[in-house]
Design brief:
This protein is α+β, with helices and mostly antiparallel strands. It has an 8-stranded mixed beta sheet with strand order 5-4-3-6-2-1-7-8, covered by helices on one side. Helix 2 packs parallel to helix 6 (164-181) and helix 11 crosses helix 14. Helix content is 32%, strand content 23%. The protein contains 16 helices and 22 strands. The protein has helices at residues 9-18, 24-37, 66-72, 99-106, 155-158, 164-181, 203-210, 260-270, 309-328, 357-368, 415-428, 448-463, 488-497, 504-516, 526-537, 556-562, and strands at 42-48, 54-59, 108-114, 121-126, 133-137, 142-148, 186-191, 194-198, 219-225, 229-236, 248-252, 255-256, 282-288, 293-294, 305-306, 392-397, 401-406, 409-414, 434-443, 467-471, 474-481, 551-555. The structure holds adenosine-5'-diphosphate and magnesium ion.
């Protein structure tokens, strides 16, 4: 049986389209964006079986006339940009003109649309592989888009869909994100027997309807404006915190994005009020001049590149700090006063200090001297697990080193080695939580050898959070260790291609930890640096999985001796 064949045009088209539409939730995201772009003030969503059977978005926006409707499902047909330059200043949610074409390629699509003051509306019906049909209908102003039987004709794609209940959750998540970002628009949601309405109102009102679990009396609304950006924040009192980032969300120009820079500013501003490791509850809505925020990076616009991010971060940090002081007083929650369960806290940060060159020469020489297990003064094997020392972060050196001190001891931490160890230890801890991939990764081993080896370690991979399914000659990765996130795939490939010599289990873990750890050249912001140091201090065995020490320790006596202050 020949397994290699050339894909038909339809199929290859589907693959490109699939980048955007991979499940009902992504179709819903595009339809909601279109309704928003059409200027609707009322948007309703209906899903059946998690959107797999049916997905409908009804809006009262501009509508389309017959010719526009016919064009709307053509590839690269858009009313939102004219020329490439327009991409630099997009104000709409959509701009690629691909969404409706992509949906039409994988599902039955029906669009009924009617323009304002028009006597008649038009209905377009399309099915993959067939020419669309247009008929005149009586309709109200606006557009109704119905998507049915997604991937029905593509069983290979359909099998990657999750259970309807899980798809329903993803759809709901998309809805929540859009409804939260547009409180002045009325939204309704219905799926199965559940129907909810979200009347137009303020951001706080919308938030308490969408997240009823958030205690409204602990929330405050704050606005911070700069020349090129305005920030609207919903801040929760620090007593309401969590150990994850579920309620730490960043929206840029009304899209929810993982903008770590802005997120870390919020975390950092809150850190003086929170016990170590805890995350605040804070929603940040940034409105940034469109020419400074580029969304044309990710097919689903899930990422943004902000041109002036560094200066925005520092402006935001100082204003937010002030706001927090006004709201909650100065947070003198330093560790000495805080409850012992709190874990680590940080001293207030002095600006990074510069150390002179000769000092670095000494450190360099020291770093090059071979490590003796017994030399515990400089390369202590004992960590601070169980203790909660206050450390003072001094700054970064050469790239890979972080400097900090505890009392009279100076530490030089190797950021890669430390992170590697932290990941390694967490991966060995059971159970390892896993994270489902939005689009499963398909891996086809190059040789039978590799295939057999991989098949034999599948059960072990499961222990580390991988969910891998073998299908004929391919392996489909459905989920990865949450800890590694997307870095798990290259780590996995590394591992199957270059299996380590040592014992299997720790080999898998060591390869993954090494691959996923921050690299020497990665520049950590102050907040992350502190977090890494805090976690490193908690390591029971502060050496990297290969045995190198993660830090060099220089105590005051030793430095005095080296500099001739205190001979003998
Ligand atoms: P894009 O949004 O990137 O332009 P789409 O494929 O999503 O591409 O939509 C194509 C075009 O169809 C849009 O540019 C818009 O003119 C029109 N359109 C789509 N949905 C609607 C809607 N709900 N109301 C009015 N016009 C719409
Ligand atoms: Mg669109």
């Amino acid at each position: 049986m020949g397994i290699i064949h050339v894909l038909s045009r339809e199929t290859s088209r589907l693959i490109a389209a699939g980048e955007v539409i991979d499940r009902p939730a992504s179709a819903l995201r595009e339809l909601l964006d279109n309704a928003l772009d059409a200027g609707a003030s009322d948007i309703s969503v209906l899903t059946e079986k998690g959107g797999i059977d049916l997905l409908r978005v009804i809006d009262n926006g501009s509508g389309m006339d017959r010719d526009d409707l016919a064009l709307s499902i053509q590839e690269h047909a858009t009313s939102k940009i004219l020329k490439a330059d327009d991409l630099l200043s997009v104000r709409t949610m959509g701009f690629r003109g691909e969404a409706l074409a992509s949906i039409a390629a994988v599902a039955r699509l029906e669009i009924t649309s009617c323009e304002k003051n028009s006597e008649i509306g038009w209905k377009l019906q399309s099915e993959p592989g067939k020419p669309p049909v247009l008929t005149p209908v009586a309709a109200r102003q606006g557009t109704v888009v119905t998507v049915q039987g997604i991937f029905e004709q593509y069983p290979a794609r359909r099998q990657f869909l999750k259970k309807p209940s899980a798809e329903a959750l993803l759809c709901r998540q998309v809805f929540t994100e859009r409804a939260l970002a547009h409180p002045h628009i009325q939204f309704s949601w219905s799926s199965g027997a559940e129907t909810s309405r979200y009347p137009a109102g303020s951001l706080l009102q919308r938030m308490s309807l969408l997240y009823p679990e958030l205690p409204a009396h602990l929330l405050s609304e704050v606005e911070i404006k700069f020349e090129t950006a305005a920030f609207h924040l919903i801040l929760a009192e620090p007593s309401f915190h969590r150990n994850d980032r579920r309620y730490l969300q960043v929206f840029v120009n009304r899209r929810k994005v993982p903008e770590w820079g802005l997120m870390s500013v919020v975390e950092y501003a809150y850190s003086e009020y929170l016990p170590g490791g805890m995350k605040p509850c804070a929603f940040l809505f940034a409105d940034i001049e469109p020419s400074l925020a580029d969304f044309n990076i990710h097919p689903a616009k899930r990422e943004v590149r902000i041109k002036t991010i560094e200066s925005l971060k520092s402006l935001l940090y100082s204003s937010l700090k002030e706001q927090l002081h006004t709201l909650y007083g100065s947070g003198s929650m330093n560790m000495a006063e805080y409850s012992p369960a709190a874990g680590l806290a940080f001293e207030t940060v002095p600006p990074s200090q510069k150390l002179d060159q000769s000092f670095w020469e000494t450190v360099r020489t020291l770093n090059e001297t071979p490590i003796k297990e017994s030399d515990s003064s400089a390369f202590g094997t004992a960590g601070y697990a169980g203790e909660r020392p206050t450390f003072r972060y001094i700054g970064r050196a050469f790239g890979p080193y972080l400097l900090f001190s505890i009392d009279d001891t100076l530490f030089i931490l190797d950021q890669h080695a430390a992170h590697e160890r932290i990941l390694y230890d967490s991966l060995l801890e059971r159970p390892v939580s896993s994270q489902a991939l939005l689009v499963p990764y398909i891996f086809e081993p190059e040789s039978d050898d590799m295939k057999n080896r991989l098949a034999s370690i599948l059960p072990e991979m499961k222990n580390f959070g991988f969910e891998i399914e073998k299908q004929h000659d391919a392996f489909i990765i459905h989920a990865v260790p949450a800890l590694l996130g997307e870095k798990a795939i290259p780590a996995f490939l590394d591992f199957v291609q270059k299996p380590p010599e040592n014992s299997r289990v720790s080999g898998i873990v060591a390869t993954m930890a090494c691959r996923a750890a921050i690299k020497d050249g990665d520049v950590l912001d102050d907040f992350s640096a502190r977090e890494l140091i805090a976690k490193s201090l908690q390591l029971p065995f502060p050496r990297c999985p290969h045995g190198r020490p993660i830090w060099i320790r220089l105590d005051r006596d030793y430095l005095d001796k080296m500099s001739g202050r205190n001979p003998g």
